[in-house]
Structure formats: structure tokens, C-alpha cells
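S.,

Sequence below, as promised.
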Amino acid sequence: MRVPLRWLSEYVDLTVGVDELARRLTIAGVEVAEIIRAGEWDGIVVAHVEKIEPHPNADRLVLATVDIGADQQPRVVCGAPNVRAGQKVAYAALGAKLIDERHRCILNVLQFLSRRSTRVDQKRNRERFFS
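The prediction came back faster than expected:
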């Protein structure tokens, strides 16, 4: 059975970290078989797509100028056919970290992130679960 920490925190005051909580639950007789961590990010921001231009050297790519705040408007090479000016997108800057149970990576390029790459599921809250 999966139990989200957010749900559990509505019933008890969670003052310890995830690993310590799992240890305490197991000692109390409720075995925690697995801790699933999803959506731990560092360096990911919401960006506003300001302008879309054709890529000068590729037919299926575009150059997207994005506003990430702080007077920065980087240009990102994008292959997504559905990106449009005016959209808000997940943006990963150089050195951004994406961590989940299957992947650990540090990005070395500027890029937009899809729902699949960030593992965001709009129908379920998948922040952290106990099994």
C-alpha cells in the first residue's frame, strides 16, 4: 500500500526526515518496504515562452526565447512540435539536477522538460510515497 507523506502529515506531525520516519514505522511494526522519491529537483523553474523562431539549421527544431525572471531571457533549441509563445514551461538551466528512483542526472544543456521527464502526473500527487 502506498501512503503519500502529504496525506500522512494531515494526521500526524512529521518532525523527522523520511528515512528516520521509515525506520520508526518499521520498529513500531509497520514495515516500510520501499521509499519512492519522485520529483526532487534543483535548478528547475517555470519559464514563460516569449518568442518562437525557426532554427536556422534544422527544419524540425525551433529557437524559443524564454523569460525566467531576473532579467534573463535565454534561447533554447526545442524539438517539441507543440511549444508556442505565451506558454509556461518547465525550464532546466545548466547544472540543474533531476532525481527520481530511476534517474540521477545533472543537465549540461539548457532545455525544456516534459511531463514525462519530470514524472509529473496531474491525476495523482506523486511527491513521496511509503510502500
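The longest helix spans residues 18-27.

Coffee later?
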